[in-house]
């Protein structure tokens, strides 16, 4: 009977998880990477999406696409609900994943330095919404110009 390669399970497809799986590219192992999202978001460039310098597609890539040429990699989109260290199993809502080696690369927690209202900045859409609201608050004329009463009609005249 042929000897099976060791199973490595990586939880998290952020910077740490992707570097771990890429490092194992040529290793004689079976690697499974599990993340609750099917994409990797390059967060350092979120501000450029918020300022319309980049499209969201420029900073978020499908994990399967990133690892498409890695033959020993399998990608699962699932949320980990538990780890049984004794039986060496990662439990997800999609099923159980046995492992010989486990890498936990789930990232870090955000700190808002006592300003929990800043947590709204986490998502690209929330950030864009906050910037628009901020611009409208800073420039009341902008708010008036973007109101439905000032929108042009089909004949080119405004409704006001």
Main-sheet strand order equals 5-2-1-9
Beta-strand segment tally? 9
What fold name stands as the CATH topology of the largest domain? FAD/NAD(P)-binding domain
The CATH class assignment of the largest domain is Alpha Beta
**Percentage of β-strand residues:** 15-25%
Question: How many structural units, i.e. domains?
Answer: 2
Summed over residues and divided by their number, the pLDDT gives a mean of 81
Outline, from the CA principal axes? elongated
Query: CATH superfamily of the largest domain, please?
Result: FAD/NAD(P)-binding domain
- Can you write the helix and strand succession as a string? EHEEHEHEEEEEHH
Helix content, binned percent: 10-25%
| Largest sheet report | 4 strands, parallel
List the helices and strands and how they pair.
Blueprint: E1 7-11, H1 15-23, E2 30-35, E3 39-41, H2 46-50, E4 60-62, H3 63-66, E5 73-77, E6 80-84, E7 89-92, E8 95-98, E9 101-104, H4 124-138, H5 140-145
Parallel strand pairs: 1-2, 1-9, 2-5
Antiparallel strand pairs: 3-4, 6-7, 7-8
